[in-house]
Amino acid sequence: MASIPGDLKYTKTHEWVRLDGGVATVGITDFAQSELSDIVYVEVTTKDKTVKREEAIGTIEAVKAVSDLYAPVSGLVIEGNESLKDAPATVNQDPYGAGWIAKIRVSDPKEMAGLLDAAAYAEVVEKSAHH
Amino acid sequence: MLKQTPFHDRHVAAGGRMVDFAGYDLPVQFHGIIPEHIRVRTTVGVFDVSHMGRIEVRGRDGLAFVNRMTTNDARKLAPNQAQYSVLCYPDGGIVDDLVVYRLPDHYLLVVNGANNAKDTAWLKEHLKADVRMENVTDGVAQLAVQGPKSEPTLQKVSSIDLSAIGFYWAAEAEVAGVRMLVSRTGYTGEDGFELYFPAGQSARVWDAVFEAGREFEIEPIGLGARDTLRMEMKMALYGNDIDQTTNPIEAGLGWVVALGKPEGFVGSDVLRRVEADKPKRRLVCLEMKDRSIARPHYRILGSGGEVGHVTSGTMSPSLGKGIALGYVAREFARAGTEVNVDVRGKAAPAVVVKPPFYKHGSRK
Predict the structure, then answer these.
(1) What value does the mean pLDDT take over residues B245-271?
(2) Which of B83, B113, B246, B346 is the most exposed, having the fewest neighbouring CB atoms within 10 Å of its CB?
């Protein structure tokens, strides 16, 4: 079973968000990393740019496919996880910890209320797993 | 409704992530494409390829029929020999690629699973007087045991000396006590065998092969690694690199197109012209120069704009860099030619290289 920590917020597109002092740390969920498998390259393409919620902010290349990373909230992308350049598989190994991907200075904290909680996201996973 | 191969319960028990492939519920991976790929390159792995189509051809005119329908020269096959070949439409487009076996009393055609029904119908349309065709896919299991340790693995449970089977040759043998066809063939660039046996014996053969390979850390391998392994060898995949809109000459399969066959074959008139005029485009190998990864349908750009498109692409687990196959205009096909690939709006530099990408395969 994919791990879904109770203290995070989620998107239908399988990102997770941790808000801390106006900065949202963003990554992909355990379910997403497991579906992608073998992640070989991660790039945040929007560093220092202001992005809107649901806009693509980066790409994740796995051996078999590429997928976009979407901004769960609007704001300024202030950081990409540099350590993933040499160790992209960290996203597979520790998706909620060292495998975080980007940090966004949130422009509208109210958007956080529109994200999924762990229980709601678990339902999304349930549906995706039995497509 | 997805079909299951005779090894379905073994895949599920081994933790396979099952997907729909060619109408079958098959494992795309077990514990990861990269480790499975490395397993085959270093020791031995087992692929369930029972989804492939198996068609037997018998009758006095069997050889003439096979030779008329396929591009390679089937007359050259000795008993128990195999050859890679292509089925073409009259316009030179590819119906499918396949392996043709000449067995003591019949021919066996092994075709892509996704094309099995189409190929069977196509062949039936062209049946001649004394030719009988039977699709035996459902009754026969097919396993590919691939990697440098495939021979020492299978030797332990085989009744014959496997070292006597040459590359693209086959023999009748008992493996795990089951009478079967064993051929030295595969889709990985490594030494390896394919086993054809009655589907009812599947569990027995699977378990014996895994027991025999235990000292080499034998593992089941999913479709994901099957794809990366074949790509590193520039082996074409139907639906990606070849299809009805491509011909075997431009796809680099001229080596299995016997234009000199006296009675010709379906597609030979067109292909003779393509060969004489030189194809306008060619399937080439591209190595990415940065960390970008090209994917199917991405545009390939030359100095003046679009010169082709990618048909297969991945990160090569053996080389640690992006590799791709794609068609480019003939002027851009020479090794060393620099191009760009439009990777989601970014021009990623790439260079045309000689096949295969991976040059250390153990294939005999």
Answers:
(1) 98
(2) B346
